[in-house]
């Protein structure tokens, strides 16, 4: 789709395995309880917008790439990245409202752009690689649940809301973690070479793991 608009209201849209949706300079909107299921490939390019609107849901078992802008509305439904699914963000991802962004076991999120968690929860149960900016705002929340977050060199994880690294979870940090509110660690935070952790950590304290041969 080039420069056009696709509105899906109240219906199901399924991208089957092997299928491909290219949004080039366009707008894709799912709302009014619509269901979008991706088992193929979706590319939202740098000049494009993707909106998950009121009561709409999104299930991804394929590859979804966002280089543009991805928005959820205040009443949007859940977005679930399933086992084998990949969410790759190099643009701006605004997660807002009552819907939860869930990355299930076997799913993967990569971020080299910006992910904003405003009034929502990012529930990570898979793997998350961050070389961009992940910011949790005052009414937002992030949790690792039996999972791993790799905040790599150049990556910034800023929390002014609620962040939890639960039991059997790991954060590997060689970037920057800035906590200005509530960060609870019941798992392991490995602070690698070049990594910095600023602000209080409740629970298990970060462990400096840096060896130079």
Element layout with pairings:
Layout: E1 5-9, E2 12-15, E3 20-23, E4 27-31, E5 35-38, E6 41-44, E7 49-52, E8 57-60, E9 63-66, E10 69-72, E11 79-81, E12 86-89, E13 92-95, E14 100-103, E15 108-111, E16 114-117, E17 121-124, E18 127-130, E19 133-136, E20 141-144, E21 148-151, E22 156-159, E23 162-165, E24 170-173, E25 176-179, E26 182-185, E27 188-192, E28 196-198, E29 202-203, E30 207-209
Parallel strand pairs: 1-4, 2-5, 3-6, 4-7, 5-8, 6-9, 7-10, 8-11, 9-12, 10-13, 11-14, 12-15, 13-16, 14-17, 15-18, 16-19, 17-20, 18-21, 19-22, 20-23, 21-24, 22-25, 23-26, 24-27, 25-28, 26-29, 27-30
Write up what this structure looks like.
With 213 residues, the chain is mostly beta strands. It has one domain. Helices cover 0% and strands 55% of the residues. The chain has strands at residues 5-9, 12-15, 20-23, 27-31, 35-38, 41-44, 49-52, 57-60, 63-66, 69-72, 79-81, 86-89, 92-95, 100-103, 108-111, 114-117, 121-124, 127-130, 133-136, 141-144, 148-151, 156-159, 162-165, 170-173, 176-179, 182-185, 188-192, 196-198, 202-203, 207-209. The strands form three sheets. Strands 1-4-7-10-13-16-19-22-25-28 form a ten-stranded parallel β-sheet, with no helix packed on it. A ten-stranded parallel β-sheet has the order 2-5-8-11-14-17-20-23-26-29, with no helix packed on it. The protein is elongated.
Summary keywords:
ten-stranded parallel β-sheet; mainly beta; single chain; 213 residues; 30 strands
């Amino acid at each position: 789709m080039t420069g056009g608009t696709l509105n899906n209201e109240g219906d199901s849209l399924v991208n089957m395995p092997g299928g491909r949706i290219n949004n080039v300079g366009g707008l894709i909107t799912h709302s009014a309880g619509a269901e979008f299921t991706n088992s193929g490939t979706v590319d939202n390019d740098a000049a494009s917008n993707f909106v998950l609107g009121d009561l709409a849901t999104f299930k991804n078992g394929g590859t979804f790439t966002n280089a543009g802008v991805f928005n959820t509305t205040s009443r949007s439904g859940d977005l679930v990245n399933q086992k084998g699914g990949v969410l790759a963000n190099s643009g701006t991802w605004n997660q807002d409202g009552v819907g939860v962004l869930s990355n299930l076991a076997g799913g993967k999120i990569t971020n080299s752009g910006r992910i904003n968690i405003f009034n929502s929860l990012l529930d990570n149960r898979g793997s998350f690689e961050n070389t961009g900016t992940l910011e949790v705002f005052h009414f937002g929340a992030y949790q690792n649940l039996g999972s791993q977050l790799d905040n790599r060199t150049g990556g910034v994880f800023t929390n002014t809301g609620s962040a939890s690294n639960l039991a059997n979870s790991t954060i590997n940090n060689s970037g920057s973690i800035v906590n200005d509110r509530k960060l609870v660690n019941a798992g392991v935070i490995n602070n690698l070479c070049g990594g910095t952790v600023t602000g209080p950590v409740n629970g298990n304290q970060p462990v400096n793991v840096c060896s130079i041969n």
